Amino acid sequence: MSTRRTLLQGAAAAVLPGLLLARGATAAARPADFAAAAAKDPLLTPLFGVSDATGDRDAEARLLGRWPAELRGRFYRNGPALYERAGQRYHHWFDGDGMVQQYRIGEGHVVHRGRLVRTAKLAQERAAGRFVVNTLGTAFPGQPPASGPDSFNTANTNAIEHAGRVLALWEGGSAYAMRPEDLATTGPVTWRGDLAQMPFSAHPKLDAQGHLWNIGAAGRKLVVWHIDPAGALAGVQLTDSPFPGGMVHDMAVTARHLVVPLPPLKLDFLSPIEGSRRRFGMTAGEPLRVLVMDKNDVAKQRVFELPPQMVFHVGNAHETADGEIVLSFVGAPDASFLDEGAVAMMAGRPGAGSRSHAFLARLNMASGQARLERLPGSDGGVEFPRIHPARVGLAARHLVFGASWIDGPGREHALFHGLQLLDVETGRVRRFDYGAHQIVEEHVFVPKPGGRGELDAWLLGTTFDARRQATVLNLLDAARIEDGPVAQAVLPYGLPLGFHGNFTAA
Question: What domains sit in the chain, N to C, each tagged with a CATH number?
Fold first, then answer.
């Protein structure tokens, strides 16, 4: 059997529940149950999602405040969006088909365009008129035979414009390419003929020279990708995973290394979905492993062990003069959000899941020792850490997060209501509270033209405003985050909640 076939089968077994479906697994939920909950809570509206008929959106936003004339470019967001079809509703937030949002900013206008990613899965289910493909958290009877990871690819996690095309990214299969001018899907990206459908994960890192680095989990192997600034494959390497079969979601890049957190999480697709505990859990007695690999030769590596934590997202990593790698990340004590919180959201109960916190790990490459410290300001929970794009792989002083910090009436949701900026050097925390009636999504740093410091930048991100029942694009001055938005662009509709995105300057 060829190496490629072995890797594809490993990727399918590690990521794709449709290949390991338990007979007792639960089919889809009833849309009426969610609708009843949403009728009582206007914050739930984005979780209705879109349909085939409403999945294409185009509108010019209503502008508030002062949009700087020098801010010009395209801001992308991606996330699960289509949750219901023919009386079926997904159980898990991560199951929805991906929808890429593009905001064109400049010349006194903000124009929104949203498109469902035309994946093979979406085309098949449109033709069938119902859901037929098993997903991370929902099973369907009579599933057709799989032809590889892209049979299940929802392209629903991240979007980045690189080398003239938009890449819609997922966890376990190909990147899907879209045209920046109209968001038309052109199809899955094959970096090389013998690498078709090899996992290209959702969190690539773009360095200051325009090189794109990424990983992918394929059974017992990790795939390491290097894409050059022109969008061509510069290199691909394979290595054994020190925790095979686990979840590998995000990674960091330094000048010389790739840094990959491997939480002690196993996706047990042979267990039934019924009950309060589902199919995802931390493996008792297993640490959080951090795999550090040489970019040029991934066989040169070290594995560090930290206290067990669930990790979705990293902030950054950099190398110090004394031989340490410093890694910032967000960790949680368990996998309850993946296992319960994201399920509760689909049922109209967005309140479950343990709080996640920001950490800094110091990894000594000479001794193999690791130190961990919890960063200040995350007692109420943080996620979606981002840094100034010019500091990727270098020392970054400031991290911005979606955050919560107030408990009490109106704060029952597990979703974020505020934005938080952390100075890693001093521990200073600065915040802006959008209010209990808003859901805060990921915000990104956008450098000001000619700017030099990390805070000589804007923060750009979306919120869902339950009072307006609209999605709002917000622009804040990073140096004065507590003042709130200096400008907003209000859409005439609300969009499904997204995960991640990136800005491309015009």
Answer: 1-240 (no CATH), 241-374 (no CATH), 377-495 (2.40.128)
